[in-house]
Amino acid sequence: MNANELWNRFKKHLCRVSAVDLSLDISRMSFDDGFFPRMAAAMEKAYAAMDALEKGAIANPDEDRMVGHYWLRAPELAPTGEIAAEIKGTLAAVKAFAAKVHSGEVKPQKAARFTQLLSIGIGGSALGPMFVADALGDPEADKMKAHFVDNTDPDGIARELTRLGDTLGETMVVVMSKSGTTPETRNGMLIAAEAYRKRGLDFPRHAVAVTGVGSKLDQQVQEQKWLNRFPMWDWVGGRTSEMSAVGLVPGFLQGRKKIDKNMK
User: Fold this and answer.
1) Rounded CA gap, 89 and 230, in Å?
2) What are the tens digits of pLDDT across the range 60-77?
3) Structural domains in the chain plus CATH codes
4) pTM to 2 decimal places
5) Neighbours of 10 (CB within 10 A)
């Protein structure tokens, strides 16, 4: 194409979405003028499927589940008022709990307040919180310093516990597992609990869970009277869970200065 043809193609195919301040130029992609008419029916079908998905259609037939992580950012789009209320209620509960921790109302067994956070999870229950902790954290301003155990490597877990050292008694552990039976997460939890026991500390008095309602971990939390528990819904996949309690709990505990501005 000559310069004039390229310019006209650019003007025709430049897409601007002002609502999200996004511009997308597809003019240099390899497609002919008949591409969009040929794809019209398929695109209409895709849009209809996406619309059904966002309204709560079963998207995972093997497990009979919806997929609705986008409702976390816009609860008003949730297919039921109950789901919308759960999303809003969980956010409010996480923020209220973090405020009590920061004020010292919720405190460790033998220390004045919690200063450290140890998040135990794997995959989507670890990578999102780790990213946000690094991207939005501020060592000079954070209320709690974040640490992570994101696999079952014994040396890696030992190194993290060594870093905590004498501050273990000021450390809150957040255990994340939707099923409550994830082996890697359970291993990390058991090792951490043993570290508390060796220091004469009661692990449940330093522990919080993010898990499915009624899961094995949820039952353990209630029986042992952990500090708190927050829900992990079956319609949120691990890779898209950052705006659920998976990301909100460690995010708000870490500190409010930047987290509040970016995690509404």
Assistant:
1) 10
2) 888 888 999 989 999 999
3) 3-30 (no CATH), 88-262 (3.40.50.10490)
4) 0.86
5) 13
